[in-house]
Structures are given as C-alpha cells and as structure tokens.
Design goal:
The chain is an alpha+beta fold and about 160 residues long. It has one domain. Helices cover about 40% and strands about 20% of the residues. It contains three helices and seven strands. It has a five-stranded antiparallel beta sheet. The protein has a two-stranded antiparallel sheet with strand order 3-4. The relative contact order is 0.25.
C-alpha cells in the first residue's frame, strides 16, 4: 500500500474506531447511571402517531413520573409548597432494541423502565432487555477497538517507511 493511501486509510479507521469507542463508553455510562440512580416505573407500549414511525424497532412508551418534594421558593420545606406534580412522558427507550419488536414489546404491553429524575425523557428498559444488550455492547466495543488498532497500525507502518 502506498504511503498516502496508508495514511488516509489509517486516519479514517483510527478516527472511526475512536469515535465508536467514545460513543460506546458514553452510552454504557448513561445506562449504568440509569441502573444505579434511575427511578423504576412501569410503562405502557403505545401506538406510534405516524405510520412511518411504526417501522422503528424501539417501542413508544408512555409513563408518569413519580411526584417529588423539593424546597419552596421561600426556602422552607413544606409538603405542599415544594411538591412537584407527576409528568406524563411519551418517549422511546435508550439502549438495545432488536431489528424487530419482540412479542413482549407488543402494543398494550406493560414493561419495566428506569428514568432519570432530572431528565424524565431519558429512559431505558430494565429486566430482560439489560441482559439482551450485552452481546451488542461487546460487538460495538470490539468493532471500535479493532478499527482503532487497525488504523493505528496502518499509520505506524506509513510513518516507518
């Protein structure tokens, strides 16, 4: 392989691998935080508003957040003064979703989810969906690592010539 081609190919592979590893790390960190600090609730799988959205393998979920109690504007802590009402959320979950929706995610199904109390629209499926995401997480991490290693190898070979 000629030096300019090796440099270009190595740079593209290294950039792709590094970006993919960064994305994998950010996604895994977010899901780990949701597992640890997320609030577990049940959600209902609802129909998609547009026919084209029905092709998305991630189901549309509807759930209500739990009411929280915070400090009032005057600085005191009263039960009624700082109470925040629950919010209805309609969102698609993060994490692994297969190419086709499994039967357990059919319309009208009730599923367990965990949401971020600071950003209620950030939600992930819990239960069996967590274990199902492990093979794909390993695949994307392996793809990112091998792309980065291949790119760095090509770059080092091009520099040593």
């Amino acid at each position: 392989m000629e030096t300019p081609t090796a440099v270009l190919t190595g740079g593209v592979l290294a950039l792709f691998g590094g970006a993919l590893l960064f994305w994998c790390a950010a996604e895994l960190r977010l899901r780990h935080q949701l597992r640890l600090h997320g609030i577990p609730v049940t959600a209902l799988v609802v129909p998609d508003p547009a026919p084209s959205d029905a092709l998305d393998s991630a189901p549309l979920l509807a759930y209500d957040t739990l009411p929280t109690v915070g400090r009032s504007a005057a600085g005191g802590q009263g039960a009624a003064a700082g109470r925040v009402e629950s919010v209805s959320v309609l969102v698609r979950p993060r994490g692994h979703t297969p190419l086709r929706r499994p039967d357990r995610l059919a319309l009208g199904s009730v599923v367990r989810v965990a949401y971020d109390p600071n950003r209620p629209a950030t939600v992930m499926l819990t239960g069996k969906a967590v274990a199902a995401s492990l093979p794909l997480d390993v695949f994307w991490t392996f793809l990112g690592t091998s792309s980065l290693a291949g790119g760095l190898s090509l770059l080092s070979l091009a520099v040593l010539r």
